Sequence to fold (855 residues):
Amino acid sequence: MTVPADPTATADEAGPLLDTVLQDWTGRCRHPSLAVALSDGQPIRLDQTAALVLRGLAEPMSEAEGLHRLVDDGEFTAVAELMDMSGRPDGSAGTALPRGVLASLDARLDAAQQEALTTVRSRVTLLQRRASRSSTALPADLAQRAEEAALRRRAEATALLDETEAAVHRAEQRQQQELRAELSAADLSEAHAAAVLACLEANEFEAGRRLLTAEGIDMHGSSPAWVPRPPRWDAALGRTLQEILSHYPPDSVPPRHDYLTRYVRLSKSDVPLLQSLRRLASARHETSVADFTSCLSATLGEDVRKPVTFRDAGFHTLLTGLADARLPHLPITDPGGVHLWVSASDAPPPEELPGPLVWFVPTAGPAPATPAGVAALTAVELLCVLAPPPAGLLSTPAHRRINLLRLLVPRLGPCALAFPDAGIALNGGTPREALAWLLDLHAVVPDAAVVHALDYESEGQPVVLRMLLEEVLPQRSADGRLNRTDLARVRTPEFRAQVRSAVADGLPAEERAALGLAYALHREEPFRGSDILADLPLAGLPDDFPRRSGQLFDAEEVLDRLCRHGLLRQKTLQDGTSGYRTLRAGLGALLTDGAAEQAGAAVETLLQRLEQARAFSRAAHTEKAVRHHAHQADNDLAVILENLNALGARLDGDDAAAVNQIMQMLPRLGGEQIRTSVSGYQSPPAVHDLVELLRAVTRDVEFNEGVRITFRTELPHGPPDEAPVLAVRTGLQTAFENLIRNAAQAVRSLRADPSAEMVRSGPDIVVRLGQPETEPHGWFQVDIEDAGPGLTEEERTFLRTGEHLSRHGTGGTGLAAARGLVQDAGGRVDILDRSDLGGAHLLVRLPAAGDGPAG
Fold:
């Protein structure tokens, strides 16, 4: 092969031969860099080609290793082209990888592309939210372009989003500069300016604008920056509580340093709380605790007095005033009040008191350690909360409430994150603002991107948000900082699987079915409840069921519940009617994964539940019908017995005896017998003695059928008169009655045949209980032989297939019914050849109790 002398010549100039070599070279997989360059479709200079080949030679690898490297690098187009070449039937080009290796690579490629799509969608959503806050216009097709790029090359999608993020960052910087310029020109106090600056540093531009134009901070804004934190305590105010309180009004000694006067300059409305704290510090009893709690509630905006109970060296009551409309509905913000325990530091609250619980310790020392669900609060910390804000800022109950919660919530532990099922609720706010407040209460200082990311991942769903925070809060630094690298723990496949399980596994079957169908089939477009019912056949519903699909669940009710759980959103459709849509961000992507399989499994559960309900309904109707027919049978039987009694009185001899025998048999057809039988079938299986049961059945059949029956026990193991079996007694008794009565009817039919010769003098039927020689310890067997006409080979074959056969007009169902009842007890019925008595021979095998049926 010849090549041009000019090293800058392209592959096209080298002629078709070089192009063929490069494009169809079987060793391309071993040179990932060359494969990437060729997949771009751009001409490659000869010197570049040589350098790429040499790079591959410097790091030898197999074809499979090269393809795996390309997948790891996100070069999805190059991998797809090479794998397509490997599948050519003529084998003229590409690799010679085994089919299993290609299948594994294909699965890995698909997984890598899906991961790239998830990352792209997350970044696009976060950029859209940042752009909205900074008034930046993003390209309308950004999401589509980024996803298409992600399926080709991960680096291409990353470059596109990096470029867009840089544009958003520039817009945020412009907003920062404009608002900082306005802040510099504004005549604000130092504290007011610091609050505006805190909003700008968090990229809360709208909150910063509102704050810039406000006369003073009224504590009703939605940003945590509106509420300045209390000052740190200065030990120069004293070491004991009595010494510290001496600096506070009304009888106060001025602090030694002027800068400490900020702490003690309280309003007149705070004096009652200071006085109650003095009384509490000097003497703790029901009255002083009640006065202190009432004054503290009033300082927080609630003038409520709660009863106080003394127990275990402390006092138990309720503290009100912690509820704030701007905050998530944490348990501690229950308007009814949070449990309050007042005691010394060596008298912790009893364990049986419900949490969350505040433990107030009237001391100047450090707060004692507490278990999860209990937050300790000292008198000094309370005085910090009461300290007035810097000049220019208003002091209101809301101000103190927020700062008190800033102390308590981090100390409560995971219990403070137990949101109610209704999710996060703010008056006029958004889940993102609730998240910002929640992070602030936990002394976390996140950057704006972290708040955006947590909002994206959770979409405000309370269970997910709780799990995310419990995972990332321990990662914050000592100064409370939390950045995007700390979120890596919540993006692992293991953690996402835990989240999906926590959200979906505990839902009822109807909610799992509707949720799975929504995310499997309606990810992009809004839908109605009727659409979910129409989708049910796609999730495994039988073809003949769609018209009755509403029997499974009420779609509108179920979808409304999913909206309340935060797993769907309500949506007004184009025609003005109400509909639903799936979540678009991180949680939505998580719920989409495996949605079809979830829906199928849930529908199967619903069908089983529906069949059980129908079975219960049928049983109820059956019981009602039994009671009705039993009552009717009793009435009819009474009339028949009365007539037979009258008839028997006019007869004598054999006729009278026949009537008497009929009258003794007729009660078996009465209502009591029917009710007893049905009740017996409904009883659970129990251990019964097969010896006693067979004796009772043979005596009953012998009397009623007028035949001679011999019963024998031939048990080589165990007591001779015990054969325990686990069964429903009524069922097993009915099975043996049917089989032995069939034998009796066969004997009687032979007697009635004038052409038959009756020469036997022994028993008509022999019932023999024994154990099989092959499995003597695990089974019992019952042989039933009769002296009837027997069965022909054709009749035996017919009955062995489960068909019905009757010679006496009874329908021939006795053997089939007996077979089913014996099978219910774990046994089986076999039809053997002709017996030694000349008639039929049946063998019943039953497992001994405790061993169960054989396989």
Q: What stands out?
A: Residues 517 and 535 are 7 Å apart (CA to CA).
